[in-house]
Amino acid sequence: MTTAALELKNLQKSFGKTEIIRGVNLAVGNSERHAIIGPNGAGKSTLFNLITGRFPQTAGEVLLHGQNLAGKAPFEINRMGLSRSFQITNIFPKMSVFENVRCSLLWSMGYKYNFWSMVGRSRDLTEGAEQILEQINLTNRRDLPAGTLSYAEQRALEIGITIAGGADVIMLDEPTAGMSHSETDYIVELIRTVTEGKTLIMVEHDMGVVFGLADRISVLVYGELIATGRPEDVRGDPKVQEAYLGAALEAEH
Ligand SMILES: Nc1ncnc2c1ncn2[C@@H]1O[C@H](COP(=O)(O)OP(=O)(O)OP(=O)(O)O)[C@@H](O)[C@H]1O
Ligand SMILES: [Mg+2]
């Protein structure tokens, strides 16, 4: 059996006495696009925070390509090839679009390089950042302050920042939240192309996005996965219908 890109084993998290994540088991394969859905407050963002090392787990394990992430800081996990975006837009608004991408590239290269080799690399950095701008279609916005971009463009920039370090596991928390239909279609296509060949784990409320993009779906309800499977199987699962999807699909109409 090949090693999963990401594996969660009996993962648990409590805040004080309140159990928020109650023993989650999940294996996400290499190059799989996996969506995590579930009602507000189910613990989706908390799960992301456990996986990326922002919160320590109460019990259980997170394995990235078979390596246990226990005790690792978020930046160490990032340098092991896992990168995430946040539910709330998270860019430097006064810096240019180009500098936002360049900074994240620089940061992801870390302290491996000393100052002099860094100088030699500055052209690589510029080229790298420009390639990312091409990928996210923001070349013509290169020198604008990031804060002046439209909302959808800012989320595209954020996706660029997330993929900049070359991570092979990408986690996106509600990448289409607050977008119109056309903006959503645009971002979905962008996500599809920039994550080609990578492992994608995303939290998403828009069922059109989820069913259009995901190879498999997990449904989190009150800190527990009540189902994991292919979209058509999850859609037809009576447990899922009852706990979440019935209401979520109705809300779309
Ligand atoms: N740092 C924290 N301290 C205490 N409780 C927290 C903390 N972070 C989250 N929670 C609680 O954990 C529960 C799950 O929150 P979380 O943000 O993970 O849900 P979610 O599934 O991402 O919801 P949404 O769909 O609204 O984004 C909520 O009841 C929340 O209040
Ligand atoms: Mg959330």
Description:
The protein is 40% helix and 23% strand. By secondary structure, the protein is an alpha/beta fold. The chain has a domain of 125 residues: Rossmann fold. The strands form two sheets. Strands 6-7-8-3-9-10 form a six-stranded mixed sheet, with helices on both faces. A hairpin with a 2-residue loop joins strand 1 and strand 2. The radius of gyration is 18 Å and the shape is globular. It starts with 5 loop residues before the first strand and ends with a helix. The model has no long low-confidence stretch (mean pLDDT 91). The site of magnesium ion has 3 residues, from helix 1.
CATH architecture of the domain at 1-80 and 209-253: 3-Layer(aba) Sandwich
**What separation lies between the terminal Cα atoms?**
42 Å
Hetero ligands: adenosine-5'-triphosphate, magnesium ion
CATH homology-level superfamily of the domain at 1-80 and 209-253: P-loop containing nucleotide triphosphate hydrolases
Count of runs of 4 or more consecutive helical residues = 9
Q: Class of the domain at 1-80 and 209-253 in CATH?
A: Alpha Beta
Q: What is the overall silhouette?
A: globular
Which structural class fits the helix and strand makeup?
A: alpha/beta
Topology-level CATH name of the domain at 1-80 and 209-253: Rossmann fold
Oligomer: single chain
Which residues sit in consecutive blocks of at least 5 with pLDDT less than 50? Answer: none
Q: Could you state the order of secondary-structure elements as H and E?
A: EEEHEEHEHHHEHEHEEHH
The pLDDT mean sits at: 91
Please give the radius of gyration in angstroms.
18 Å
